[in-house]
Structure formats: structure tokens, C-alpha cells
Amino acid sequence: MHVLVTGGAGYIGSHTCLHLLQSGMDVTVIDNFCNSSPEALNRVQALSGRSLHAVQGDVRDAALLDQVFQRGQAIDAVIHFAGLKAVGESVAEPTRYYDNNVAGSLSVIQAMDRASVSTLIFSSTATVYGDPSSEDLPLRETAPCGFTLSPYATSKWMVERCLADLQLAQPHWRIACLRYFNPVGAHHSGRIGENPRGIPNNLVPYISQVALGMREKVSVYGNDYATPDGTGVRDYIHVMDLAEGHGATLEYLGKQPQGTLLTLNLGTGQGASVLDVINTFSAACGRPIPFQVVARRPGDVPVLCADATLANQLLNWQATRSLSQMCHDSWHWQTHNPQGYDT
Ligand SMILES: NC(=O)c1ccc[n+]([C@@H]2O[C@H](COP(=O)([O-])OP(=O)(O)OC[C@H]3O[C@@H](n4cnc5c(N)ncnc54)[C@H](O)[C@@H]3O)[C@@H](O)[C@H]2O)c1
Ligand SMILES: O=c1ccn([C@@H]2O[C@H](COP(=O)(O)OP(=O)(O)O[C@H]3O[C@H](CO)[C@@H](O)[C@H](O)[C@H]3O)[C@@H](O)[C@H]2O)c(=O)[nH]1
């Protein structure tokens, strides 16, 4: 099987490319490196002992996509990771987010159509659930969606809706929208991992930099939520579990008849609070993690936690790595690559 991975040099993309190569699949990547480094792909190839074909470019470049689809061995499926993901940034720059995430996805879908490739995995997000009511937790895929709290979340929901309409109009497609919860951790080798530019937005990369002494303390955004310890609860999932979930989805889609549209939560089903994560990380790295409680971050919700039963059943897949493993692997990556791929 030959898979085109858009955004394959990014955090989730690089781990998924490694898993696909190790599973014997052929991989082509298109990435404009706006939030990643070609070095990630060098390391993926070194770790797997196999090569992939990398194309530098933007998924909104229709002519380039046509070239990629026409070149060499036929592409069987696309995993579309390319997109922008910073929730706060999307509030400040909505048109950039809609352009990259919505127009970029349309460009990929239309190029697939021209090339008669109709198997697609789309990177969606738990943020499509907005601020769920407590009776909807843990979240099943049927929980209300679309009351989104940021342009980022809306952009992902718009693409999910577009794919549902496409599937109705052209029932030969096989599509999976995967709603990721909170991916953290890194490959156990410490060779690939998350590579935030500037000040990290996300909790675990920030804690990692505090543990390493690069930043003074973690700001805990609010301790007055209706959660057991008052801090926000999320469903953290190891990035390698997520990568394996993509492999399992490709396998599942390959066995389905034409006309499949699948929407799945990829999470562990276990919620962890901000303080749980700080304490678990501190145990993993053997250092105290200084923190200070500050005001809530606008747009944050109290709890996002998956019911991943459907993915477990359909894909014969389950997230197996613990929060402790996630923190351990993030720390391993951070200590070996304090400046990310720029080291
Ligand atoms: N990391 C998360 O917490 C999370 C959670 C839910 C969903 N997602 C989604 O999963 C996908 C991958 O996330 P990630 O964490 O690996 O992000 P990432 O930023 O590390 O990776 C995205 C990759 O896409 C590339 N890219 C962006 N726009 C592009 C374009 N127009 N053309 C070509 N390449 C482009 C970037 O250079 C980067 O390599 C994204 O779509 C993101 O929205 C991420
Ligand atoms: O410095 C920090 C950073 C975060 N948090 C808290 O930690 C939790 C997790 O925050 P973060 O790591 O920023 O993740 P989310 O805001 O949950 O969003 C992530 O997870 C979503 C899926 O659930 C993705 O779609 C988003 O792209 C991704 O940023 C939240 O309660 C935050 O309030 C802090 O207290 N301090």
C-alpha cells in the first residue's frame, strides 16, 4: 500500500509515517514545513531503515498535488494531517486558519478526486464537541458537535461536514474522520517528538521545558473548575498509540465496501487533570515542577474525555500506553533534543 501523508513532517505525522514504514507500507509526504523540519523525516527514515518520498510544498497548490498523484507508484490512500492547530492563534488570525485548514482540505479532496483516489483519513479534533454537558461525558461520537469555541475547532467541523456531504454525493469514497483527544509523548527512541516553536501553548511541552530549566514555572490555568481538583481534565493519548490508530484505520477502511464514512474518537477514555499531569511528569523526570495557579485561559473547557469504545471495537485497536509512559517519553525526547530538531 502506498500512502500520501500530508503534514507528514509534523508531530503526529512523523510518528505515523514511522509506524506505516515499519508496517511495510510505502509513504510519500507533502509538507511545507511551516511548523516542522525536514530533519524529522530524516530521522523517521533512519529509525525505520526505509526511505520515503518527501515533497516540499503547500497542499493548496493544486498543480503540485496533481504532480504528486501522477508520479511513480499509484497512491492508494491519503492521511491528511496538514493544517494549523493553535487554538489561541486561530482566534487572532481566523482567515489564516480557514484558508489553511478548510481551503487546504478542499484542495486535497479535489486532487484526490482528479486522481481517482477515494480513501481518506482526516485529522479532526475533540474540540468539535465544544463545551460538552456533563451528561455527555465521556464523549461518544454521537454527542452534540459544532457549537465550537474557536475558528480552529470550527475549521475542523466544517471539513467534517464537507466530507459527509461528499460521501452522500459520491458514495464510492471511504472516509474516516478521527477526532484526536490530547496527543502527548514521543517515540521511545527519543529521536522524534513534538517540536514547538517559541513558547509552547500545550501543557506537556511547557512542563518539559520547565523540567529542563528552560522556563521558570508552569502556569496552571484555573483551579476553580467543577473537576475533582479544580483544574482542567483532558484525555491524554500517547502519540504512538495515535499513530497505530491510523494504521488500524487504513486496514479497516481497506476491508470496507465503498461508501464508508466513519467518525471515531481516538483517546484512552481516562481523564487526567493538570495537576495529575504535573505530578506524573515530576515522578517521571525525578524533579519538582514548580507551578502557579493563574486565571482560566479563555476558550478552555473543564473536561474533554473520550468514550473510545467504537474505535476499540471497529479497529481492534486500543491505546495501551499510560500517562506515566507519555511523560517519560516526552522527557526522554526533551532531554535529548532541548532545542527540538534545531539542536
Ligand atoms: N496535536 C494536537 O493536539 C492535535 C489534536 C487534534 C487534532 N490535531 C490535528 O492533527 C493534525 C496534525 O497535528 P500535529 O500536532 O502533528 O501538528 P503539526 O503542526 O506538528 O503538524 C502539521 C504539519 O502540517 C504542515 N502544514 C501545515 N499547513 C500546511 C500546508 N498548507 N501545506 C503543507 N503542509 C502544511 C506543517 O508544516 C506540519 O509539518 C493537524 O491537522 C491538527 O489540527 C492535532
Ligand atoms: O501552560 C498551560 C497549558 C495548558 N494548561 C491546561 O492544560 C490542559 C490541556 O491544555 P493544552 O495542552 O493546551 O491542550 P488543549 O487546550 O486541550 O488542546 C489540545 O487538544 C485538542 C484536542 O482535545 C486539540 O485539538 C488542540 O489542537 C490541542 O492544542 C487545559 O486544561 C489547559 O487549561 C495549563 O494549565 N497550562
TrEMBL record:
<keyword id="KW-0413">Isomerase</keyword>
<dbReference type="InterPro" id="IPR005886">
    <property type="entry name" value="UDP_G4E"/>
</dbReference>
<dbReference type="InterPro" id="IPR001509">
    <property type="entry name" value="Epimerase_deHydtase"/>
</dbReference>
<comment type="similarity">
    <text>Belongs to the NAD(P)-dependent epimerase/dehydratase family.</text>
</comment>
<keyword id="KW-0520">NAD</keyword>
<protein>
    <recommendedName>
        <fullName>UDP-glucose 4-epimerase</fullName>
        <ecNumber>5.1.3.2</ecNumber>
    </recommendedName>
</protein>
<comment type="subunit">
    <text>Homodimer.</text>
</comment>
<dbReference type="GO" id="GO:0003978">
    <property type="term" value="F:UDP-glucose 4-epimerase activity"/>
</dbReference>
<dbReference type="InterPro" id="IPR036291">
    <property type="entry name" value="NAD(P)-bd_dom_sf"/>
</dbReference>
<dbReference type="GO" id="GO:0006012">
    <property type="term" value="P:galactose metabolic process"/>
</dbReference>
<keyword id="KW-0299">Galactose metabolism</keyword>
<feature type="domain" description="NAD-dependent epimerase/dehydratase">
    <location>
        <begin position="3"/>
        <end position="255"/>
    </location>
</feature>
<comment type="pathway">
    <text>Carbohydrate metabolism; galactose metabolism.</text>
</comment>
<dbReference type="GO" id="GO:0005829">
    <property type="term" value="C:cytosol"/>
</dbReference>
<dbReference type="Pfam" id="PF01370">
    <property type="entry name" value="Epimerase"/>
</dbReference>
<keyword id="KW-0119">Carbohydrate metabolism</keyword>
